[in-house]
Amino acid sequence: MEETQPPPQPKLPLCDSLMIWLQTFNTASPCQDVKQLTSGVAMAQVLHQIDAAWFNESWLSRIKEDVGDNWRIKASNVKKVLQGIMSYYHEFLGQQISEALIPDLNQITECSDPVELGRLLQLILGCAINCEKKQEHIQNIMTLEESVQHVVMTAIQELMSKEILSSPPNDAVGELEQQLKRALEELQEALAEKEELRQRCEELDMQVTTLQDEKNSLVSENEMMNEKLDQLDGSFDDPNTVVAKKYFHAQLQLEQLQEENFRLEAAKDDYRVHCEELEKQLIEFQHRNDELTSLAKKKK
């Protein structure tokens, strides 16, 4: 039986993927497209959910919600968002944001540039994965579509790598960075294996469906033959008759298909168990990444 390979999922741009992630916060202000985000309101509301103590109600009240098409108010809001993020990184996380990661706010507010907006959303992502509720946010990321999940994970790695490169050299820190790099590689391998197993499960589902259709067809054919056999006195007892041969052949095919169906169902269950184990490994890898990152910061 020829197996059909599922088409590869297209890789979404950084801004599009991070907008999908942003929508998991269910903000009062819409964040469905780039234009809506350029007001800065939805991004501020997300930061408030990430750390309500730091981005508190007083800070949030400085973001003007009635923006309309006034680019000056948009620019003021987005500037406050970036300043709040930079303050959070420096004072709360003890990190300096690399110049390469700082977006051009004019391009965001005046031109609705998705590339620069993607950089700003990437910094918000950094706040989420480093805050006290980071495990909750990481779990939410793991529930996204695979293609979105890969882009978000790559964005996280870029944040970490550029922060590391901008840090002063230190032997102990360098060793921790190598451990962190290996842990990230293991995490990517686990994600790739999970994707491969998911595709295999889909293939098995398709095979099971095809076999079930064939089985139903043979059951119908078998019933028709039984009706014909009931009309032929004694022909069933004679194995040399054409009807009897067709009946026994169909019966044999049915049994073989049932055995194949059971085998594929068992294989599919095994793959799903493996997928669940990989999910647990992913969470363990993330915990390990967090510990290594925290230790690297202390060593610095």
TrEMBL record:
Q: Keywords in UniProt for this one? A: Coiled coil, Cytoplasm, Cytoskeleton, Microtubule
Q: GO CC: one term?
A: microtubule
* PROSITE patterns named in the record: CH
Highest taxon above the source species: Eukaryota
Q: Which residues form a coiled coil?
A: 170-295
| Any one Gene Ontology BP term | endosome organization
Keyword Magnesium (UniProt):
no
Instruction: Respond yes or no to whether keyword RNA-binding is given for this record.
Output: no
InterPro entries in the record, alphabetically?
CH_dom, CH_dom_sf, Hook_C, HOOK_N
Compartments annotated for it: namely: Cytoplasm, Cytoskeleton
Give all residue intervals belonging to the Calponin-homology (CH) domain: 12-128
One MF annotation (Gene Ontology) recorded for this entry: microtubule binding
Q: What family does the Swiss-Prot or TrEMBL record give for this protein?
A: Belongs to the hook family.
* Name this polypeptide is given: HOOK1 protein
Say which species the protein is native to.
Answer: Homo sapiens (Human)
Gene of this entry:
HOOK1
